[in-house]
Design goal:
Strand content: 15-25%
Strand order of the largest sheet: 14-13-27-26-25-15-16
Number of strands: 37
Bound molecules: iron/sulfur cluster
Helix content: 25-40%
Radius of gyration: 29 Å
Distance between the termini: 68 Å
Number of helices: 29
Structural class: alpha/beta
């Protein structure tokens, strides 16, 4: 970068050519006041507060936009500049209501601070005159808008446009009437607003405030704790503002490595579940069908004695243990060690089985490592094309979705979306392929057919970095676009166009989520995504890769730390004698060589009597598993069920003993996000009542069974034990994890972590192509059940709804389940939008309100699965992928009729 020499306030400064005066001054440590400027936003130069005097310029210039040039002489605080700033501030406060004493932002108002600094007294303001009398808008559950305090800096408008990308707000009207608002000045809830809260974050006054913080404290009373968001696998860093043991507000962490200040509505506003009156505060023991409160000693003794009895009588494998993708790495390590070392079984699993089990099996087969290959930053910044298949990115991984949306808009990166619904990100796509659920292999084979027959693939990469190409070629040549299109219910041209876009734009990042994995062919689907990216040479480089977007906050970490039936921490196989011996020595016990039962297998085994007891920590199979009615029957047939959670979930209600654990805001530890980044979780508030740390509870049960090796004093101590046993975490310790975290593999204390996998060489050596044939789903529509049900998540809720349904704002804005039905299907069935309908499958029925639109493909019905009162998983089928054992949650046959 060329340098220019400038003088600021008689000081010589070397700046970079192209910098603005403000940037050069800030870098040199010279302060220039700003108001409409925000470092994360493009400058707009409307407030005139940052003006400076530049030698040779007739008028004062806004430093936020004026570029430096060689020899420039700048005065930042000359009398002329200071007077101009005073005038600008006087004009800005001329119609301000000046209600600082009651304003929520008192103490954090940038206008107030500048008026103080420049001695601008509102009582003496020369320009005071007419004032606005806008009504305060609190018609939505999250953001109060008081435009009487708005100074029209348009930071909020720019945040909405350049950070989120939805452009929900803009400037309305003209002159004195100018105000910020939505189209037709409607409420935010009636606009495209996604309530990410970035407008609130950047507002310099009290014009936009979070409703939840009102009256809960003054700025200077807040304690700040940085932690990792407890919701999705993006792993956003959050700044929790705390007063009196309550989270009052969530603010942005601008150097958060995964989010760079962005949050979605759940991370920003969905924290109030933490103080829900439903929180469990004491252990519960069921007596005569009713829960009664118990002491910890009673409850722990009962759990330990019943598990010991069952182990003694029926053997270790008669007990199943579910760990949790919501819990920390340290808690997961403790729980899998409990199952293996204390109970003596590998019946340890968690909900990764229901979301990304095929990612592990498929990507290990193809590449030798079952995780997201690239980082959010390189995907966002360097991909020339995004190929999104089976991921509703802006609703399920919203911050990543925002970043991709921005790159498509600003950088003109290309976007292909393959999804059976018009999901929101499809609005930004160059090509939306609306394939039938369950036809992904055919679609991907069709695209690869074009790439191979037209010789558009990366021959050098295939030649040098992969093996088994001939098998792939032989298979995909059976899927010319016409055949593939017929299977997928699309046109051959769409397949050809996708292939051409992918070939012309490299590198390209492939992103997928559960639309790919939750099928009886989930393993095959994942292999196909790997085939495509190897064929395009999109592996081992920035902006490329196969990127499975992990669902829950710590689903990656729960897998890494061994909460799986076949592997110890670090994916070391339980069937490998050397690995077994290593853990036997570390834990001081003999370990079982037998691969355990998966989530669905364990629950089915409860019905047959093979499994007699289960210990479930932080999971809710009564909502998350397929065919819930059957799950209920199975869990009820157990001799003993213990559930450890923060709420009396649908599963906990069936338990014999319920142990109150702590929330993500009440614990220390680490989560590993989707991009393999291990990040710190910091305790922000104390847990309610007698709720206890989950690792402590597990350790106490173990101790009472007679094993002392799970008695720890802190999560740090657990990580210090786990890391040396887990090669990919070998260099991880709490002391090393600063605000940026570390991405595994990080094998040694001096290793910097690995942002991109498979650079130069795949983990397994050569990338392995597999010829994959399309196979139909386990249950296809027929005369009796003519529609395909597919399930998923919505922006405002998370997983089984345990947390988000207890967040006032989130539940208010999306209060009930809906059934999405295509317009053509609705017309055939005589069903009108808003009507209550009954959806029936071979396994059960639910009723909910119908939403008729062209969003789902004809023949496809969509339901979110967060709502216990209309639980979509009453309908889904428990057919399993034979390799990964994931159930086919994305496809089953249903009928819809008026209720
Ligand atoms: Fe939390 Fe995910 Fe939203 Fe980030 S994108 S704030 S991690 S829910």
């Amino acid at each position: 970068m060329a340098k220019v020499n400038i003088t600021i306030n008689d000081r010589q400064v070397v700046a970079e050519a192209g910098q603005t005066v403000l940037e050069a001054a800030t870098e040199a440590g010279i302060e220039i006041p700003t108001l409409c400027y925000h470092p994360a936003l493009p400058p707009e130069a409307v407030c005139r507060v940052c003006v400076v005097e530049i030698e040779g310029q007739r008028t004062l210039q806004p430093s936020c936009t004026f570029p430096v040039s060689e020899g420039m002489e700048i005065k930042t605080h000359s009398p002329r500049v200071v007077e101009a700033r005073r005038v600008a501030l006087e004009l800005l406060i001329s119609d301000c209501p000046m209600d600082c004493t009651t304003c929520e932002m008192n103490g954090n108002c940038e206008l107030q601070d500048l008026c103080y600094e420049y001695g601008v007294n509102p009582e003496e303001a020369r320009f005071a005159g007419e004032k606005h009398e806008y009504p305060i808008d609190d018609s939505n559950p999250f953001i109060e808008r008081d435009y009487n305090k708005c100074i029209l800096c348009r930071r909020c408008v720019r945040a909405c446009e350049y950070m989120n990308g939805v452009e929900a707000i803009g400037s309305l009207w003209r002159g004195f009437e100018t105000k910020i608002g939505t189209a037709f000045d409607a409420g935010l809830q009636d606009s495209p607003c996604e309530f990410c809260g970035m407008c609130v974050e950047v507002c310099p006054t009290g014009a936009l405030i979070p409703i939840e913080r009102k009256g809960k404290g003054r700025e200077w009373e807040f304690r700040h704790v940085q932690t990792t968001c407890p919701y999705c696998g993006v792993g956003c860093q959050l700044d929790l503002n705390i007063k009196d043991n309550r989270i009052v507000q969530v603010r942005s962490v601008w150097d958060g490595p995964a989010n760079h200040g962005l949050t979605c509505v759940k991370g920003r506003f969905g924290f109030d579940f933490n103080e829900s009156p439903d929180r469990l505060t004491r252990p519960l023991i069921k007596k005569d069908g009713q829960f009664v409160e118990a002491t910890w000693d009673e409850a722990l003794h009962l759990v330990a004695s019943r598990l010991s009895e069952i182990k003694e009588k029926h053997g270790s494998d008669a007990i199943g243990v579910l760990s949790s993708a919501k819990c920390t790495n340290e808690e997961n390590y403790a729980m899998q060690k409990f199952a293996r070392a204390v109970i003596g079984t590998n019946n340890i699993d968690h909900c990764a089985r229901l979301c990304h089990a095929p990612t592990v099996t498929g990507l290990v087969t193809a590449f030798g490592s079952g995780a997201m290959t690239n980082s959010f930053d390189d995907i966002a910044e360097e991909a020339e094309i995004y190929f999104i298949i089976g991921s509703n990115t802006t609703e399920q991984h919203p911050v990543l979705g925002m970043r991709i949306r921005q790159e498509v808009k600003e950088r003109d990166a290309k976007l292909i979306v393959c999804d059976p619904r018009e999901i929101p990100i499809a609005d930004f796509a160059d090509l939306h392929i609306c394939q039938k659920p369950g036809t992904d292999v055919a679609l991907l084979n069709g695209i690869m057919n074009v790439l191979i027959t037209e010789e558009l693939y990366d021959e050098d990469f295939v030649e040098g970095r992969t093996e088994n190409f001939e098998e792939l070629k032989e298979t995909v040549l059976k899927y010319p676009p016409e055949r593939a299109a017929e299977i997928c219910g699309i046109t051959p041209d769409e397949i050809v166009e996708a292939a051409h876009l992918l070939a012309e734009n490299r590198p390209g990042a492939l992103l997928y989520a559960m639309g790919i994995t939750q099928h009886t062919c989930g393993h095959q689907n994942v292999l196909s995504t790997a085939n495509l990216q190897m064929l395009l040479g999109n592996m081992g480089l920035p902006g490329g890769g196969v990127n499975p977007l992990r669902g829950q906050n710590n689903v990656q970490g729960a897998c890494d730390l061994g909460a799986l039936v076949n592997v110890y921490p670090g994916y070391q196989k339980v069937t490998d004698p050397a690995a077994r011996e290593k853990f036997e020595q570390a834990w001081g016990v003999k370990l079982s060589p037998k691969v355990g039962l998966t989530v669905v297998e364990m629950i089915n085994a409860a019905e047959t009597g093979e499994v007699k007891a289960m210990y479930i920590m932080g999971e809710n199979p009564m909502m998350s598993d397929p065919d819930i009615k059957h799950v209920e029957e199975c869990l009820k047939s157990l001799d003993f069920l213990v559930v450890q959670d923060i709420f009396l979930t649908e599963t906990a209600q069936l338990a014999d003993v319920v142990l109150p654990g702590v929330s993500g805001f009440e614990k220390d530890g680490t989560y590993t996000n989707s991009e393999r980044r291990i990040q710190m979780v910091h305790k922000a508030v104390d847990p309610p009542g007698e709720a206890r740390q989950d690792w402590w509870i597990v350790g106490e049960v173990a101790r009472r069974i007679g094993y002392d090796g799970l008695t720890y004093s802190s999560p740090k101590e657990i990580m210090d034990e786990a890391a040396p046993l887990t090669p990919i975490y070998g260099g991880i310790s709490h002391d090393r994890l600063d605000t940026q975290g570390l991405q595994w593999p990080c094998p040694s204390p001096d290793h910097p972590g690995t942002p991109i996998l498979h650079v130069g060489k795949f983990a397994r050596g050569l990338g392995h192509f597999t010829g994959v044939e399309w196979q139909p789903p386990a249950e296809e529509p027929d005369e009796e059940y003519p529609l395909i049900l597919t399930t998923g998540r919505v922006l405002y809720h998370w997983h089984t709804g345990t947390l988000t349904r207890r967040s006032k704002g989130l539940d208010a804005i999306y209060p009930e389940a809906v059934v999405e039905l295509n317009t053509q299907d609705a017309a055939k069935l005589g069903i009108a939008d808003g009507q209550i309908v009954k959806v029936t499958s071979r396994r059960g029925e639910v009723t909910a309100k119908v939403q008729v639109s062209d969003k789902p493909k004809p023949g496809v019905v969509f339901m979110p699965w967060h709502f216990a009162e209309a639980a979509a998983n009453k309908l889904t089928i428990a057919a399993l992928d034979p390799t990964s054992k994931i159930p086919e949650l994305k496809v089953c046959a249903v009928k819809v009729e008026a209720a």
